[in-house]
User: Fold these one by one.
Assistant:
Number 1:
Amino acid sequence: MQTAEKLRPFGARDKIGYAMGDLGCNLSFQLISSYMFLFYTQCIGLTTTNWAWIIVVSKIWDAVNDIIIGGMVDRHRLSKKSKFMPWIAIGSVGLLAFSILLFLPVQQLSQAGKAIWCLLIYGLYTTAYTMVNVPYGSLHSVITEDPKQRTSLSTFRSIGAGVAAVLVMLLPQVVYVDNVLSESRMFLVAVVFSVVAFFVFILLRKMVTERVVREERVEKVSYLSTIKSFFTNRALLAITIATFAVVAFHNSSASVNNLVFQFYFHDAEKASFAMIASYVPLLALMPFASTIVGKVGKKRFIVLGGLGSMLAGILMLFLPITPDTKGMVLYIAGLMLVNIGSCVFQIIVWAIVADCIEMSYRKKGVREEGSLYAIYSFFRNLAQGVGSAVVALSLSAAGYVESAPVQTDEASAKFKTLYILLLVAGLAVMTVSMKFIYNIDLKQEQAFAPANGDVAETMQGE
């Protein structure tokens, strides 16, 4: 047993190390969110209908394995030194392999063969991703208990995700050849991203210190008890609903934006500029996130950002965004404003989840970080499946023909409208959920700070 004084104090090393985790996760997650649908429909030749059912089945499995793996993380400690790092180490190996195989050019297979390959490899990928992401998300609560430090961790996690996002934003300059997506270049990108992700997970494990280590309780907590804890935690339900909306309608629609530039503006490479502009609010807000949260609270910060972005999105629906350079500039500027709300959410969502898990502990007196985060992740992954299926079917209804090298002008215009509507819908649900359901106020957030700045629980080291 080691005292708190002998542990390295919380600092920049933890923040940077923690950011490495979301950089690694998002190198695959962002790539898949933005390009997997396009790769399998445009390059491999999978039909939109097959894509829709494959993604739903895969995400149902993904959601279920979140809970299974979360329970395993809570109930089976693989190392005396760390509760979470061994799981991340194991999962990162699978993530390396299946992220590469997922973009293997298999267009020579039959339609049934393509569907089976996609379903199998994506299912294995999601299992490996869960084995990394669930313990990584839970890691947040054992690095520190101080709310301000948790907010800084959440901010740095967003930086890690942001770096991955910027790299994905630049991909249109690489993966399109004469406005056509190249399967060989997509595979090369998948190899590079996967290898980099593997090594940044090593940096995560080397740089972060788990300093809030509690003595394990003798009694075991059942899955039913954990599920009850989740559904009786109003704040956790609210952030789960908000996350579901953002992931389903915002994150899952990234491929639609690529189609807007490819077929409406007839310049797929320019999608990079729209993606970069969308992240300008994230970069602008990050340095001030902790200060703003300290003054207005996490709830109000998200609600204000969501309302402003909703209004900007509604305005975009009525603006004359024409398929020329002038219209493209107007479209990109509008997206920058619409994304303010989601950027605010992205910056502080993980600090909110940590607060919700802390609230559960204070009510119940039992630590269930892994299991509660796994249930939250269950709905997050379910949202990916629902969102991807809705996007695919909506595109089909709008006239998208996956095998066609060009789309009709009418269909292309509908892609633009569809993308804006999806963003507004996600923002609306997020804002309503945080305004009327979420019930942790600024005073409660501050009350989560340990007395006199000390960690309230028993701490141990190597």
Note: Confidence is low (pLDDT under 50) at residues 1-5, 450-462.
Number 2:
Amino acid sequence: MRTIKSGISLFLYIILLLKYHSSYAETHSESTDSLLAKALKLYSKNPDAGITRIRRIYLFAKKKDDRTAEIKSATLMARLYWSGGQYDSAGLYINYSLQLTEKFNIDSLMGDSWMIAGLIDHSTARYQQAIQKYKSSALYYQKEHKLTSMATSYLNIGMCQIQLSQYDNAIRYCLLAARLFEGAGDKANLANAYKTIASCFSSLGEFPKAILYNKKALSIRLKLSDKRLIAQSLNNTGNAFRQYHQPDSGIAYLLKCLYLRKNEKDSSILVLTLQNLGSAYQMKGSMNVAERYLLRSLNIAEKYNMQEEVARGDLDLAALYLPERKFKQGLAAAQITEKTAKTLNIPQLLMDAYAMKSNLYTTQNDYKNALLYVNLKNSIKDTIFNSAKNKIISELEIKYQTVQKEKDIAALSTQNRLGDKIVLQQKRLIIIFIAASLFLLILSAAAYNSYHLKNKANQRVQTLMRELHHRVKNNLQILSGLFTMQIGELNDESIRNALRENELRLTSMNLVHNKLYQDHNNTQIAMKEYLGSLLLHIKESFGKGADIALKVDVENIELEADKAVALGLIVNELATNAFKYAFDGNAGELYLCLGLQGKSKLLFQLSDNGKGIHHNSSAKNTSFGLKLVNLMARQLDTSLTVQNMNGTSYQMEIPV
């Protein structure tokens, strides 16, 4: 809150006392502006007496229907209640002031009223609403050619956008403000605008630009000879150099700041500078000096009960102890930070404390606790994300309503001249329009939420399917590896052949699951690549790479995984039989063809130019392999035909 008020001090004492004279002034031989100025002077000495005086002016003006005096006094009451932190009372007076300015079209007072309304929202963290009200004030200030006040509105917009982490937009508005302040010759506020721009660049990690604008602010403040603000700019510039990993330059500026504040001794304003010095010396590697500055900042912060600064100082100490492997000291400091962050409800600081504790436990090889604090940090991060998402949705709804309200105000200011009856009709139409728009917005939000949940569920299903294929692939690889190991250790050729056949069957299935795992967005298998890889593996397993030529003629066809597995097992069995029985150790050729036949069938053919099948091989026809072939053929809703001419040829017509 202190930061907001110091940054908005540009407007704190600006009460635009315009050239209107009211009936109240005529009665009392003094203008409203003069009376309010005296009441404000009394307020600075005795706030209660000052408020009472302003309230009397307000009530008298209301009684006499002096709208200008009524608006000015209500606006001043709102501003004083705001500066005292009484935001509810401030809101009541400023809303009444806005109603009057809109009703009677007093544009000259609109800017002040919207500015105070923005300050109230700004101070209560309603940043989107504050931005819209600051924009309204800037619009009316522009109409009245009040450029300094307009610049103040822009600067306040930038400060709200910083709170919303909208740094690019904040820079744009602060640059507009700086241009106006420079044109008006307002050096103090120009330096304040540069300081705010520098803080935006620091948040974006653009430290050279942050240094540049901090130096601009420092140059102006040196000319103004304000030691307090000079020290502030020295501290900011030094900290920017530290963040830019130039500790020597940072230390030079920070020591100058410390020298300017030497008369402060152990004042609370030294804490940030001492912490920055400690961090800079730590970056430089001067750990003892760093520890001395950090401990001094901690002592001052504890003296003035600056709980957040104490917590941040302890976090800096923990970071100092981490590379020195001073586990106990570092853990104690991090625990203080954790406790304070929970007490003050500062999520980012709590996340930093958990991260530090995880790093400390890692140095002790205590990975259980290290993982625990990583998970705690991630849990807070998820909570912050969800909270921010809900806040953004809420603020977007409010922004929409605010924009609509601004349009309504502009329309009403024109329609008032047409009479009360027309105004009433327009208001009713506007209310209906807003209600319909909100209804559509709610429907859109519900539809988006439903889509988001469905998409999330689909992603989870895809992840589970990919994991399933991954596990099946791994298990098949393990079994295949076991069979391969056993084949190498056995002497019985019949057992070796049986194991080799099983290993090849596993490989035909494993290739499918491997491709499904690699491309988790597709459930279909490219048959050309799959069947080619399968035949090559079978050939290599028989050690006949130089004897048997493979000819693969497969079109660019994709099949579902279940059909691909069935066809792969058929190819495996038939090709294995060919390698075992067709060639008797002689050279030969194995030909595989798969292509479309019409629009609804696939033609499959696997043939060899070996010795062919003899009629007395009925024993082979009842083997497990050929039973498996027939079973897979039935699964594909087809049957296998065999031709024995210049070798053996198998054919199938597969419906698709």
Note: Residues 15 and 76 are 7 Å apart (CA to CA).
